[in-house]
Records
---
Amino acid sequence: MTELSIFDAEKDIIKNSKTIVDDKQFNDNPLYEDYQKLAVHYEKLFHQFERMMKISDRQQQQLLNTKDYILNYNEELKQLNATKDKFFSIIAHDLKSPINSFLNISNILVNHIEKFTKAELVDMAGDVKKAGDNLFKLLENLLFWARIQMERIEFKPEIYSLDTIVYHNISLLQLNADQKGIKITSNISEDIKVFADPDMLNTILRNLISNAIKFSNMGGAITISHSESENYNKISIEDNGVGISLGDQEKLFRIDVNITRPGTDDEKGTGLGLVLCKEMIEKHQGLIEIDSTPGTGTVFMFSLMKKPQYSR
Amino acid sequence: MDNLYIPATKHSPEIDFDYQKNTLLLSGQSYPENTAVFYQPIINWIKDYIDQIDDQETVFNISIVYFNSSSSKVFMDILDLLDNKAKEGGSFIINWHYDKEDEIILEHGEEFKEDLEHLSFNLLVK
């Protein structure tokens, strides 16, 4: 079988013309010489044309690839630009106000320090420290988030005990919980292992547990539990605090909306914590979900893939 | 005869033909507004050149990154001219230069090489 070609008609013409040129009976024909020239030139032209088509097809394909590449790149740039805009808007709104209160208190102290009693000064120093702590927390989250955006944070999952990392984070936040008389219980058994990036899982747990403390009433209870499916480990943090309205639930994980509200003891938030959590959970191919009823409490559940498939 | 030098533009390649050194260079991009007008003096120069050379070896360096279809027709015609001269006894070395990353240009070079029988055609990494 001959090779399939878009040039079958041209190849037939060349074959026939060769038969005619080679046939001695046409040699004396007055048109023979012109015909022969035509045939030779036609064949040459045909070969050039065939090769030019290949070159041209290849170049068009290359241009298409380049076009796709540029379109993708453009899309990526748009997203990066949106991220940058959000970053600056967070800096503009959320960094400005704590710095402002910081400056206000220091101004009062500088100009009127002699007018205050020692007890008042201790109070104000406490406020300055709170503002400073909060500012630092916001900066930390902001920078961490910026580094994730820039892909500077390497995703390094390891297998380790969930129980250990949960207790570590509870102990870090125990003081805050004690101040509000909140009891934190973990139902996670010692033999549960997770495959996760320890830095990220620490940040996720710290954010979710401190949120639960923030929005729990005095004497509340927080429960941390684990369940699993074939491919996922699921961890939930449940509180019996003030809960979140449906409308606000939708906005929790969005950087462009960036809501924050004070806790039950007027604790300030950064509005970035859950956004960060979501990004880090997605690095683990997992999901974060919320189930909350205002006045009853909130459950945050997140999943971590047991063996993440690397997408990048 | 005179040497031929045409500086590169955005749409046309640099041409540097030296009849005393027997070196020809075509380098850059080739999608001139009117391909025939751009290449007419170049083809004429080559015709004059092959008429006056004897058995000197001519080296033709081609380093092209992008060219349009009519340019490829002209390249084939030029290479055919040289191939025909080589058949009668001229000696030509064609060096087709391509970037290591640019397989497409390498494959184009293989296409140009295909119908040539009498000159040596080298595909060289830049």
---
Amino acid sequence: MMKCREATQKMSEELERPLTLGEQVELSVHLAVCPPCRNFRRQAAFLRESMRAYARHPEADERDPSQ
Amino acid sequence: MANPDTPVGNTSGAAEALNDPQFVEDMRRRMLRFATLQLSDPHLAEDAVQEAFIGALRGSGSFAGRAAYRSWVFGILRHKIADQLRARTRYATVLVEDAEPDPTPDGLFEQDGHWTDDAAPADWGDPHASLRDAQFWRVFEACLDHLPGQQARVFMMREFVELESPEICSAVGISTSNLNVSLHRARLRLRNCLQQHWFGEEAAPP
């Protein structure tokens, strides 16, 4: 059975390539019983979103002490 | 060069910003640090930063303040770096010896592969509200700064410069599995850092 360490590795790779059917099944089975890994999956997606926001939006880079 | 970051606003932040040597120097320093990390060549980095400033001067725009201006110039730099790295992939045919990826931080997992109590990802609720919080971005940036060199480099290439995985592998000269290991570890570190310093119940600034 897949452990958290390996599950996070698959969830990271999921952002790089489509997982195989076998990997998807194994991951789903793990996620069904592991709330922290379910949080990890949402947060990994959020990291990608925030990096893109960081790259694009001026308000993401507002550091002027006068404001 | 395509410039997707159309300036908005109605005050001329550019002229005002460029008249402040300290602001310009601070911006230049940060751009140079980023370009040097990405290109691994101080001279090419210097050139790229120079060109980004020149490109910014050519584009006449008005900016709603300094941050908008800085973000726009940084966007130009980002595109120059993407072009440079992509150009490298054309003649990078020999795969250099894979370096050992920077390590996973200690204390995230037990021996048996389960999360440790301290490191288990907590529920962050809806984290998107933080994207509008200036303090969040200070923490975010500090966490990025704490990534080890190679992890920071490939993670920024992937998520900030937005190159595809195969482009990064040939620009850096590493295998796909090496890249995936580095990205995985970078995500573990960054997530853990944000939980410790922002989203966690006992979060404290880094």
---
Amino acid sequence: MESSKRSFLKIAGISALGLGAKPVFDVMASSGEMAKPKTMKGPKALLAKRWGMVIDTRKLRTEEDLKPMIEICNKIHNVPHYDNPLHEIKWIWSEEFENDFPMQEADFLDDRLKHMPFLTLCNHCNQPPCVRVCPTKATFKREDGIVMMDYHRCIGCRFCMAACPYGSRSFNFRDPRPFIKKLYTGYPTRTKGVVEKCDFCSERLAVGEMPGCVEVSKGALAFGDLDDPNSEVRKLLRDNYAIRRKPALGTGPSVFYIV
Amino acid sequence: MLEKALTGTKRYYGWIAALLVVIGVGFGCYLWQFRFGLGITGMSRDVSWGFYIAQFTFLVGVAASAVMVVLPYYLHNYKAFGRITILGEFLAVASVTMCILFVFVDLGQPIRIMNVLLHPTPNSILFWDMIVLNGYLFLNIIVGWKVLEAERNNVAPAGWLKPLIYLSIPWAVSIHTVTAYLYCGLPGRGFWLTAILAPRFLASAFAAGPAFLILLCMLVRKITKFDPGKEQIQSLGKVVAYATCVSMFFFLCEVFVALYSRIPEETAHLKYLFVGLHGHGVLVPWMWTSVILTSVAIILLVNPVTRKNETVLALACVAVFIGTWIDKGLGMISGGFIPNPFNQVTEYVPTLPEIAIAVGVWALGFLILTALYKIAVTVKEEVAGLI
């Protein structure tokens, strides 16, 4: 008697489990027939063959002029602020001419240019050394020229930082989350032990918006397709003489400075 | 044979215990680093590699130097070195293990280390470094162990070992070449961007490695019944003498190119290391110590009268070892990062926990070295009928 009661309960339990599990099996069976997951571009996404930026330094004279661009970037990318300069995370910041262009020093440079702040960010090189050295492909170049980071794959070896001739990369020497002024939910925060840098606001381009810094630049920054002869950036480069950082290294920076 | 590492004198156990304490302290500090992040070190955005990677670079050299005893014995049939090849190979095993550990403790996300295998990337030199270092480790463990076992059983080593032994010779050169390629292929790092970096690394490796091996041979002779031999030590002394000369010559070639061409990107790093730059120069006294130690050692080693005096030889070997350690373990990495790509100076000084972790890794290497040498020496004593 006792044993038949137990076996009844057992059978009842298994059938209940079976009924409950049916939808799960259905899903698993159908997913087996499905092809690999596809990534598709958003309907509003901005597309290009090679994204590039032209900075008109004639319109950016003082630190005050640069401030809105730096601030918006830090805000929408959850860039932490540290008091210890050794641990600094920088995506876009200001440097003097002689620091950004050490091989192009001009002895009798106009004082205006000499002490003028230059906007400094990742150059999204055409031949990026950082991508070449990464042992896990955690940093990679997209088809549209943007040099990106996969924060979940990076092992934190920092080879890319040694390889970057522009000092564009930062490493999370500690957990950055407590040092983010105000959490922005539109972009992931990072963890300790990974490298990060500017990614030309790929997350904004994907939904049809221009990079944050370009949007607040009041026309001082132009962003567009370097591969398209009719783009605004190409027009600017046709009409003005522009320089790039350390062109002799052959990295092919995609950020141009009109001086 | 492994059991021979488990029995020993009180002094042997005491030494092991002392090493374990140092390893324990290092491990404790590593746990702290694991929780907090690499922020507990002195590294920064500008000097993004520090003490760990520098130790790694230096120790790759010590590991590669095993070839200096293997090559003369197996390729030139220089019989005398047959007595000490095992000491060279086991030193290589301990050194490569330290190298791998130093790369590991330098990682920001160590738990993701298998990503290097999950996403193999042949265009990264680090990928190749992983292959050559692990390959070299296995080659030396297999060759060292099987040859020692054959010696113990009084039989000739198995035939299949020969190809592995021959392979280990170019492989030794490869580990330091690939390690140099980590640095010398980077655009914009003028200090490293030199075709002579790999040869320079090899020359200083063949100086520091055999110098350390000489000191180990002397130590083995003093505390065990096995005598590695006077001729062996003297032959190694000549290797150290000429390798140190070549290393110094390569360094002076670098100095000439930088100072005569006067290209700022070439000179800035040397200036920082030897006279200071923009008012910064923590490494200046260290670098001059290195140059002086190496110069004095060259005089003592090249002169046969002083080289044949074993006390002087030992002192010269200490000088070569420390001089090379400063050059590669302090100057080479910091010097490459300072000044930074903006021609600004951010100095680097390792922190105490960082040093404790590094010393812990060294202690672990010495623990492996002690155990392996204990096995090798006991087998040698038995074969010679000394115990």
---
Amino acid sequence: MSINLQNVTYVYMSKTPFEKVAIKNINIEIKQGEFVGIIGHTGSGKSTLVQHLNGLLKPTSGTVTIGEQNIHSKGQAARQAKSRVGMVFQYPEHQLFEETVYEDIAFGPRNLGIPEDEIDSRVKKALNFVGLDFEKYAQRTPFQLSGGQMRRVAIAGVIALEPEYLILDEPSAGLDPRGRDEIFGQIINLYEATGMTVVLVSHNMEDVAKMANRLLVMKDGEISLDGTPKDIFQNYQVELKQAGVDAPPLTLLMNKFKQRGLDVDNTVIATDAAADSIFDAVRRC
Amino acid sequence: MGEFITVKDMCHTYFAHEGEEVQALDHINISIHEGEFVAIIGTNGSGKSTLAKHFNALLTPNSGQCIVNGLDTLDPENTWEIRQSVGMVFQNPDNQIVATLVEEDVAFGPENLGVEPAEIRKRVAEALQDVGMEEYRQHSPHLLSGGQKQRVAIAGVLAMCSNCLVLDEPTAMLDPQGRQEVLSTVLRLHREQKITVVYITHFMEEAVAADRVIVMEQGKVVMEGTPQEVFSQVNHLKELGLDVPVAAELSYRLRQLNLIIPEKIITDEELVVAVCP
């Protein structure tokens, strides 16, 4: 089962002076088990695009299907199809509202009509996945946790819905480097453990390079590049710049070595591998 | 250079749930000089934002002192003068924009200070020019990009004729281009108008641009020095859960491989030259 967008166009504030085509004529298939990174300049249409994946926005023209199901048709089947897609918005901790961490995570599954004992096990599992101790945190109010902890509770709330597709819009914004590494570590664990399809919108090229196996670059409402991060960061730097984004800092640094005539491998994504590559290149010359 | 902000043995304690005390600032001693660009880094919860809020008297010390421009923040008589001279820019641009037109938003500060209308017009025009937003003066702020909104917020501070700009993670919500816009605007104002800047960030490549870097951990200042001095301590920063610029980390690893690389390299260019002279 995959999510398919066919000729999807979305126009904001249609027929007003502020009319703006946010995305135009998008055709993509997101296959089960993929880890898709989406990058692009602010206003390039990233968030508009991902909001189509679970039916939050209805295309002005074109269709969105999950499996065979058009998610904008009427009835139970379309609703069910949409519930397969879980969405973590930017700053999801702003949406916490319950009195305890437990209740906040249980809210979604309860709305789906899941029995209480099943909810209990889902809450435990979700907290475990985001690295928060159930005994310690379940009965605390979410509002006095640190920013990183609140973010994790919010993500747990979506994980407890057990979606087949997990969409994350800038999950690391505003977190310190350690918090960011933890959140991404847990997303990777979740991806590897459950085979869940992940769609990640991020401004952090380094993280996208490390995690995604497919990268979409958006520019002016269109997908300008679609390929593996390795290929795109290495071979399409002019196009990336035009799209208002850049390769990860390490790739840029390795390219500077190359320009200086040192034969290093500019496809590395980890600093220890980069150090080895520079070391070898220096020894060769 | 005189001292613009002096913090002496300052503590600040919050009361969390069930009366639990959280010591957000623990005997801080620092000074910020006039015309200096200081970056503050540290993990979430290390006390960076609490410290910054003392600089314009949004918070006052539980013990110790915070002297801003010669004025003690504990004296309520000084509050307005301090807030006029130190302007804050926060993380979320949407939380600090109040008006429906860019120029009205920038005019909000001086209007509240009771500045003459003709003078306000002049200040707004100058401030918008300083941040490169003059062509947007009649635009609606909510249709601007994040980087543009932050520059409007900075213009709002300039229009109050503040001589110190305190920015609390101004780029956390921005894309790389927006981040670049904000940082280069701040750097230019610092250079051309000698504005004192306190810049809190999680992005180490931004902190590299500062004159001095202060590292905070659990309410204390744990490191302080030039970016070269601070970022060459790769291990220490990693232990604190912080990043280092990629060039600093790579030169550290190359030294471990016994390649002769000078200490204190923090930029790509320095490293490339050091490796391939």
